[in-house]
Amino acid sequence: MRRCFKVEVQPTPTQLKALLQHSGNARWAYNWGLAQHQAAHAAWVEQGKPAKWDGWPNAIALHKDLNALKKRDPQDGGVPWMFEASKCAPQEALRDLDRAFKNFFQGRAKYPRFKSRSRGIGGFRLTGSIQVAQKTIQLPRIGRLRVKPGDHGYLPWGRHSAASVSEEAGRWFVGVVGPESDEAQIEGLPAVGLDLGVARLATLSDGTVIDNPKALAAGKRKLKRLQREVARKKKGSSRRRKARAKVAKAHARVANVRSDALHKATTMLAKSHGRIVIEDLRVKNMTAGGGRRKRGLNRVLLDASLREFRRQLEYKGKLYGCEVVAVAAHFTSQKCSVCGHTDRGNRPSQSVFRCLSCGHEANADLNAAINILEAGSCPDSQNACGVGVRRGGPRVTSQPAVKQESAGTG
Ligand SMILES: [Zn+2]
C-alpha cells in the first residue's frame, strides 16, 4: 500500500489555463471512452449476444483510437486541440475508465457515469518527470507550481513518476504517491471520536487522554501575574513599559507551548487513524455547550484552540490519508453512550457521567467522545487522492445499465 500525499497549489493565470485545459481533455477522453464502451456493448446486443460478453475496449486500444482522432480534421470528428496539452491526461483518464469498469464488474462500484462539467472541473493525472521541492512542484507541460505556504515541505521530496491534480471549489490540489509502506499499517487504521476540552486537550473515544502540557498552565499563571503587575505601574512610566515587554514575552511563550502541543497531538492523531470525528464548533457554540465551559479568557482560548486543532487535523488528514469529519453533535455531553438516554441530569458534575436510565457510569469526556464517534460513523470515506473506489461504498451487482447520456465535451 502506498499513501497519497496532497497539497494545495497556487497556479499563475497561465498555469491555471493549462490546468483547466488538461482537466477538460481528461474529462473529454473519459466521456468519449465511456461512449465507445456503450457502443461496443450495444453492437454486441444487436448481434444477438453471439458469445459471453468478455469485456470492453481497453485503455490501450482506446488510446490508440484517440491518437488517430487527434490527427484528424475537427469537421471529421477529430480532436487536434488535444495536442496543446500533455497526452498523459487523456491516457490516464482512459485508465481510470478501465478501473471504473473493473470495479463495476467486480461489484465494488456503480456503473461509470459521464463526467459533466457542471458537476465540477474534476482533475487529471500526469506521468513523467515530476520534481518536488520544499515550496514548488514541477509538472510536465504545466511548469513549476507554487505550493501554498501552509503546506510547504509536506510532499515527499525529489523525483516522482506520477501526480494527480484536482480542483475543489476554486482551489487546486496536487497529490503524489509516497514510498511503499506497510499495508496493514494503513488499511487497519482505526476510527476515533474526539472530545476537545479545557482541562484536558482531548479525550479519545478509545479512552486515550491527551493532556495539556504542564508548561501551559504554568505559563498562563505567570502571564496573569505579569498582567496584574502592569496594571499597578503608573501609565507612561518606564517601569510600565518594561512590565509590558515581559507580558508580551510570556504571551508568546504560552502561544508557543500551546501551538507545539496542538501540532504534536494532531500529527499523532492523523498518522495513527483512518478516520477522526470531531464536533462542529459552530454548532456547539450555538447551543452554548450546556454551560459546561468557562466564560472569559478560558473560553476565548479554548475556541481559538479548537479552531486551530481542527485546521491542523484537516490538512494533516489530507497528508496522511486520514479522513476528518466534523459532526453537528447535539447533546453529546448529556447522552448516554450505552443506552442513548439523553438528560441534563446525567451529568452530576463536570467530570462524571452517570446515566439516570441504565446506570452507566463513565468519565464525562469519554462518554462524549464515544457519542461523537457514533455521530460521525457513516460509511462514506474516500482515499486522500480522491481516486479509486470508495471504501465501504454501495455494492452493485446488477448488469451494466447501458444508457446513452449526452457526453459532455466542455
Ligand atoms: Zn444509559
Largest sheet: 6 strands, antiparallel, barrel
**Small molecules in complex:** zinc ion
How many beta-strand elements?
13
Fraction of residues in H or I helices = 40-55%
Mean pLDDT: 80
Shape: flat
Q: Which stretches of 5+ consecutive residues score pLDDT under 50?
A: 283-294, 379-410
What is the spatial order of strands in the main beta sheet? 1-4-3-2-5-6
Could you say how many structural domains there are in total? 2
Task: State the end-to-end distance.
Answer: 35 Å
Question: Which CATH class of the largest domain applies here?
Answer: Alpha Beta
Instruction: Decide which structural class fits the backbone.
Output: alpha+beta
| CATH architecture annotation of the largest domain | 2-Layer Sandwich
CATH topology of the largest domain: Nucleotidyltransferase, domain 5
Radius of gyration: 27 Å
H/E order of the elements? Answer: EHHHEEEEEHEEEHHEHHEEEH
Number of helical segments with 4 or more residues: 9
Hey, roughly how much beta strand do the residues contain?
15-25%
